Amino acid sequence: MTILKFDKLKFEKLSCPNGCSNSDRKIIIGKDTLHELEGTFTIVRCNNCGLSRTSPRPDQKSVGYYYPDNYRPYSSATIMPSSKGIWKSIRTWVRNNVSGKTTDYLPANSSGRLLEIGCSTGKFLNAASNLGWQVEGVEFSKIAARHARAQGHQVIVGQLETVELPANSYDVVVGWMVLEHLHNPSAVLSHLYMAMKPNGVLILSVPNFNSWSRRIFGQFWYGLQLPTHLFHFTEPSLRKTLEKKGFINCKFSYQANIKDFVLSLSIFLKNKGYIRFSSVLRNMVESAGLKIHLFYPVAALAAVLKGSSRMVVVVRKPH
Ligand SMILES: [Zn+2]
Q1: Which of 32, 58, 193, 216 qualifies as a cystine partner to 63, CB 3.0-4.6 A?
Q2: Ligand 1 centre distance from Cα of residue 21 (Å)
Q3: What is the CATH number that goes with domain 22-71+89-316?
Q4: Mean pLDDT value of segment 158-169
Q5: How far apart are CA 100 and CA 215, in angstroms?
Q6: Span from the CA of 311 to the centroid of ligand 1 (angstroms)
Q7: What percent of the chain is modeled with pLDDT above 70?
Q8: Could you give the angle at which helices 258-271 and 275-286 cross, rounded to 10 degrees?
Q9: CA of 237 to the centre of ligand 1 (A)
Q10: What is the pLDDT of residues 6-58, one digit of tens each?
């Protein structure tokens, strides 16, 4: 693999993908807070449709620079903290009964063909397959895809825009925190629409740009993840984007996400010079212990009031 250098990266400006006339407002200027790589980035909001986007952004060949081999979302999916006995049982119970599971969003019949876009190391494919779904994945990272394949899953490595998918074939397509990473979400949504069976279900989760955390922490919000997040959705702007592609029965729900608030606070404190307190918070999240659940009441309240940092949308392709 070619090693990219910052001064060789190419950045591109993008007009609103919903085809609006040019009328943007700069709303946030920020940096890569995940790996602290070079660059300063701007988020603009389209005054016509309300969709926010990172512009200028690294082009499709350059963006790999911001996904280093130790890219956090991949490592956290592969390296689980070890805990034993009673602690392991409590953690599992909390995850299943308090934090909620991604499989809860799947249709109840538990049968049929399911495609996960951005399947990473295959954690969700395992869970869905255990429920009886016939699962397949698409993944951009070869390393992550290798993990998923090692567990017996069929995974295509490639860009979602160009990957070959069979027409009218999937009962369910899911994408957890994927849409905001895509250079051309509109083209990908059309591609998925084509691959879904009539009456098929599409389930997506994205960071909520209208969340309390984003309003409180601004450029330090963990869900911002500049510059790998190219689009920054709210319920109205995502609904518009999906309906424009022909999807119907748009249903939104909000996840009680505890980690987001703690990590945002950690990033904020680090930037204000409180390095030690910042590390304490980060370690609390990374050790995935029980202390972090002290923040659960706030996260639950945010979810009820549609202010949590992660939203899930379920839509259908018409009959
Ligand atoms: Zn627009």
Answers
A1: 58
A2: 7
A3: 3.40.50.150
A4: 92
A5: 24
A6: 21
A7: 89
A8: 160
A9: 9
A10: 999 999 999 998 888 889 999 999 999 989 999 999 999 999 989 999 999 99
